TrEMBL record:
Keywords: Monooxygenase, Oxidoreductase. InterPro entries: Bact_Lucif_Oxidored, Luciferase-like_dom, Luciferase-like_sf. This is Alkanesulfonate monooxygenase SsuD/methylene tetrahydromethanopterin reductase-like flavin-dependent oxidoreductase (Luciferase family). Residues 1-317 form the Luciferase-like domain. GO terms for cellular component: cytosol. The lineage of its organism: Bacteria, Bacillati, Actinomycetota, Actinomycetes, Pseudonocardiales. GO terms for molecular function: monooxygenase activity; oxidoreductase activity, acting on paired donors, with incorporation or reduction of molecular oxygen. Pfam families: Bac_luciferase. Coiled coil: none annotated.
Length: 354
């Protein structure tokens, strides 16, 4: 198993300035490399305390690239629906070169109605815009005199500069929420997969992974070469009581910010997002203790978290865990402590194959 760090801001300007948040995350990025974590990842969201401090993951990851030499840099995920593919492909290719070929290019559909409305993009077009944007980026990365004649974009012939450092292009990752179709499509296309197990039942996640891995092999991709990335909130302390305190605070902060961001679903419906009109109610009913029992949150002493990670491996097979160690509202010292404890007393055990 491999382990990385995820930066998903759930913080408002009244709690912490953007400047302070970025400085703290960049300091934690340096620590992540020192401790041997596989990657750092950040999101693309707008307007809300839920993710709003990260409207452009490429900007943050470029700063992270300047302070590191080895750690992978992951967009988790960039949103093709909100950016012209020429602009998006160019930004990502620049980042890949600046970092010396350390980019994993994650793409997502987006799911917040307020964001689609602000960009003037019909939410019913989200899947088609996503698919077209990803394929157009891959074309721009790999072909000279590229020509695209799609539903939403037309361009060419154009030759993108710079070309990506990684050839033929950076690894492509697809973020999926609860869509089996998205998982199967990612497997057929040979894309790696990003999932958030906390939003689905364990059996549902297992089914999605099985469909993805079967589609991967059926499409002729080498078995076992796929890369699955699973995201979890993580909080460690030497004492269980302290770990539960911090884990609960992180969970409650995240769910309160998410509930505000998804409130528009109470008066929005879309065939592209079945069941999302109940999302706000589901978020507000989330219980920390139940989530902990269901291993949807990693929190506890190192020994307890080791057991949780072993359980995840048994459930989902070989995967990379992306750990949310800071939401922005807790002191950076607590995030650094979590990372050090995880690296020395959890990650080290699994690196030995235990």
């Amino acid at each position: 198993m491999r382990f990385g760090i995820s930066f998903f801001p759930t913080v408002s300007p009244t709690e912490k300035s953007a400047y302070q948040y970025y400085e703290e995350c960049l300091d934690l990025t340096v620590l992540a490399e020192e401790l041997g974590f596989h990657h750092v990842k950040t999101v693309e969201h707008y307007f809300h305390p839920y993710g709003g401090y990260s409207p452009d993951p490429v900007t943050f990851l470029a700063a992270a690239a300047a302070r590191t030499n080895r750690v992978r840099l992951v967009t988790g995920a960039a949103i093709p629906a909100f950016t012209h593919p020429i602009k998006l492909a160019g930004k990502l290719a620049m980042l890949d070169n600046i970092s010396g070929g350390r980019l994993d290019a994650g793409f997502g559909r987006a799911f917040l109605p307020d964001e689609f409305e602000a960009f003037g993009v019909p939410i019913e077009e989200s899947r088609r815009r996503f698919s077209e944007g990803v394929e157009a980026c891959k074309l721009l990365w790999t072909q000279e005199d590229a020509v695209w004649d799609g539903e939403f974009y037309r361009f060419g012939p154009v030759t993108m500069l710079p070309r990506p450092c990684q050839r033929p292009h950076p690894p492509v990752m697809v973020a999926a929420a609860a869509s089996s179709d998205s998982c199967e499509a990612a497997g057929r296309a040979g894309h790696n997969l990003q999932l958030v197990p906390s939003i689905s039942h364990r059996e549902r996640v297992q089914d999605m992974l099985a469909l993805y891995r079967k589609a991967w092999v059926d499409a002729g991709h080498a078995p076992g070469t796929e890369h699955v990335q699973l995201s979890y909130t993580c909080y460690l302390a030497a004492a269980e009581a302290e770990a539960r305190r911090g884990g609960r605070m992180s969970h409650e902060n995240y769910t309160s910010k998410l509930a505000e961001a998804v409130s528009a679903w109470a008066h929005t419906s879309s065939a592209q997002y079945p069941g999302y009109e109940r999302l706000a109610q589901q978020v507000t009913s989330s219980d920390f203790e139940q989530a902990l029992r269901d291993t949807k949150i990693l929190a506890g002493s190192p020994e307890q978290v080791r057991r949780q990670v072993a359980q995840i491996r048994d459930w989902y097979g070989d995967a990379t865990l992306s750990l949310q160690v800071t939401s922005g509202n807790l002191p950076i010292e607590e995030s650094a402590r979590t990372m050090r404890l995880f690296a020395t007393e959890v990650m080290a055990m699994f690196d030995r194959g235990d």
